[in-house]
Amino acid sequence: MRKISLANLDALFAAIAAEETLYLPQDTEKGAVYAEWCEGATLSNALNTVRSPKDFFFPQTENLMDFKVEGKSIEIIDTRKECEDFVIFGVRACDVRSFEVLDRVFLSEPVDTYYKNRRDHGVIISMACTRPAETCFCQTFGIDAAAPEGDIVCHKTEDTLYLDAKTEKGETLLARLSALTEECDTSAVEAQQALIRERMAKLPLANLSASDFGADKTMEFFNRPEWKELSQSCLGCGTCTFVCPTCQCYDIKDFDTGHGIKRFRCWDSCMYSEFTRMAHGNNRLTQVERFRQRFMHKLVYYPTNNDGLFSCVGCGRCLAKCPINMNIVKVMKTLGGKDNG
Amino acid sequence: MQEITRNALVEKASALLADGTVGRVLAWKRGEFDYDVTPAVFQTAEELARDLVWNDFCGANFSKYLIKETEKSDEKVLVFLKPCDTYSFNQLLTEHRFNREKVYVIGVPCAGMLDVEKVKKSAEGIASITEDSDKIVIETLFDGALTLDRASLLAERCINCKSKKHTAYDELLGEDGEVLDSARFDEVAAIEAMTPDERFAFWQNELSRCIRCNACRNVCPACTCEKCVFDNPASGLENKAASDSFEEKMFHIIRAFHVVGRCTDCGECSRVCPQQIPLHLLNRKFIKDIDNFYGEYQAGAEVGSRAPIVDYTTEDLEPNEAVERGDDNA
After folding, report:
1. Which of A5, A70, A201, B143 yields a CA-CA distance of 20 to 30 A from B151?
2. B23 in Cβ contact with B75 (< 8 Å)
3. Which residue(s) pair with B171 in the sheet?
């Protein structure tokens, strides 16, 4: 484990940014956002960024290819470029887990080359959460806010940043920064971890349990009558899906430029009426079915297809942002009654 | 602090359920946290007693829900409306969007609602929120209790409240208020005073954050098309995300144009925006222009009024005059 005084944080950022593009959470008037580091930028202390870091690997909109039309000929232009190396600093434990959820979708055969390109070139520096919020429930899904995953894991105390490399990518980067950091023992980090775990245990959602949900439970939950009441005031907007770090559905559309086509991919939302519209029409006719789809996907379908892994990471963004305050916690408490009082 | 207590709402609704006046109740339901309130349909007195909430976080405007709710059965729906909600209610009636006979409206006086984003900016890790006359006490998870001025946490639309008067109701709880002389157009005037480049930069900054979640559109009581052009694959406009940065501006400007003369300035668009874009300013610009060009007009002030924009009179100003006066405003 290495450490650096917080007074030298700018030097650390400058050293990273000298070779790779560095992104870190920065405060704006409208909340924290990931932005490129430049001289004078300060690291936000916010718990969560407004948008999740899935943008780095799965952006809201991206060009897949262009078509150029001249007379009767169409030229297909491959717009893919090798991504440059980049580093994301300060990713929370919940968001780091979201990358695993996305990986299982985009890196399984057939591999999504657009996603893989960015994933291969990104280094993730995670940060433990000393001040979790009332909306946090990562522990429900077995995520430890005191010990995030990531290429390098950081713990920030009042005066020091501790860094621990967990992967080859992380070790390479940390080795490059060795002149700025010094070797240290793990006692300060262990003390902080104990504090974090004590705080996590006291959170209002600390006892939320996912034990009733999981793989192969489709028939247990699909026809539950409660879906109707749970979804009754849903506006059918895409806020929950778009602030979610793990929602990964997309659509591919053509944009007519007048003399060609830009074929782009954009996030889609199961909350939208046109989602999964097929030749025969749409099999989810009302918001009840659309609403059910989202939560069944997180809590049952995804685990069924992915060794029991849930595709909610408990970041709490949907709790904070849903216009009508309906969310996965309320769904779990209503449907998964056994351990949720 | 709200003047009417939660119990008054529960008692009133329970009595109307019991005597058969209404079959169900559209009201605010308590959630996991004190600021977490969900619009819900209540069917029994027990549900009302257990879950109904009336506090400083009951911002949701139920008017639009009545379109769907009144279709569900022959029984009347009880709805609680704040003064500003009644303007949307009237506007929807003007547009024949639901049957007035199937609704029982109880007007609730409103002391203004708090902005959850402002609350969260002031306090991290919220364990509980309680009201103490003009103070708000926030118990936090790690920093003890904070006492804040209620006024400092009010939503923008409530700071600039246009009316404490209910424009529609079957029954009122408490006293009705007056139409207010609000400063709601000041920020529009400040944007008008910008140079075109500054104004472009202002909107570029705001609208570039849009994630096209459609929350503004879906919550808007003026957006009641059964099939929105932006959801219609046959329209050629059905883009779920921007294909370039110009598109976001198009979406919001087209939407603002579409609700001209019908937007009551209820402010729900800005309340629900997950990116905190001040979308209401686009609508207010149109309201301000209508007031200037055609005389003051408030959508939803009464049922059946025609907005100047769809009501030709010989006194209407000529287009070139509008352009000239528009230039004076800019």
Report:
1. B143
2. yes
3. B106
Asked if residue B23 has pLDDT above 80, the reply is: yes
Which residues on A lie below 8 Å from B127 (Cβ)?
Answer: 134, 204
B-chain CB neighbours of A277 within 8 Å are 233
Whether the pLDDT of residue B330 is over 50: the answer is no
Residues A166 and A235 in one domain: no
Last residue of a domain, one of A172, A201, A230: A201
Q: How far is A155 from chain B (nearest CA, A)?
A: 19
Chain B hits for A236, Cβ within 8 Å: 218
Residues A241 and A319 in one domain: yes
The domain total for chain A is 2
Last residue of a domain, one of A201, A230, A261: A201
**If pLDDT is split at 50, 70 and 90, which confidence band does B247 have?**
low
Can you read off the two tokens belonging to residue B87? 């303007």
Same domain, A28 and A175: yes
Q: Is residue A206 a part of any domain in this protein?
A: no
Query: What is the phi/psi pair of residue A325, to 5°?
Result: 55, 45
Q: What gap in Å lies between CA A2 and CA A185, rounded to an integer?
A: 8
Please tell me if residue A228 touches chain B, with a CB cutoff of 8 Å: no
In a domain, A211, yes or no: no
Report yes or no on A213 lying in a domain. no
Residues A168 and A298 grouped into a single domain: no
Mean pLDDT calculated for residue range A277-299: 93
Which of B37, B214, B239 lies nearest to residue A253, judging by beta carbons? B239
Whether A207 maps to a domain, the answer reads no
Residues A90 and A170 in one domain: yes
Q: Residue A247 contacts by C-beta under 8 Å, 6 or more apart in sequence?
A: A240, A241, A267, A269, A294
Kindly list the residues from chain B whose CB atom is less than 8 angstroms away from the CB atom of residue A238. Answer: 211-215, 240
- Interface membership of A175 toward B (CB under 8 Å): no
Q: Is the pLDDT of residue B119 over 80?
A: yes
Query: Is the model's pLDDT at B319 over the cut of 90?
Result: no
Rg of chain A in Å (alpha carbons): 22
Those of residues 86-115 in A touching chain B at CB distance below 8 A are none
By three-state DSSP, how is residue A209 classified? coil
Residues A51 and A170 in one domain: yes
Per-residue pLDDT at A259: 86
Q: Which domain holds residue A191?
A: 2-201
**Averaged confidence pLDDT in chain A:** 95
User: Strands A152-156, A160-165: parallel, antiparallel or unpaired by DSSP?
Assistant: antiparallel
Buried-state track A250-285, b at ≥16 Cβ within 10 A, e below 16: bbebebeeeebbbbbbbbbbbbbbebeeeeeeeebe
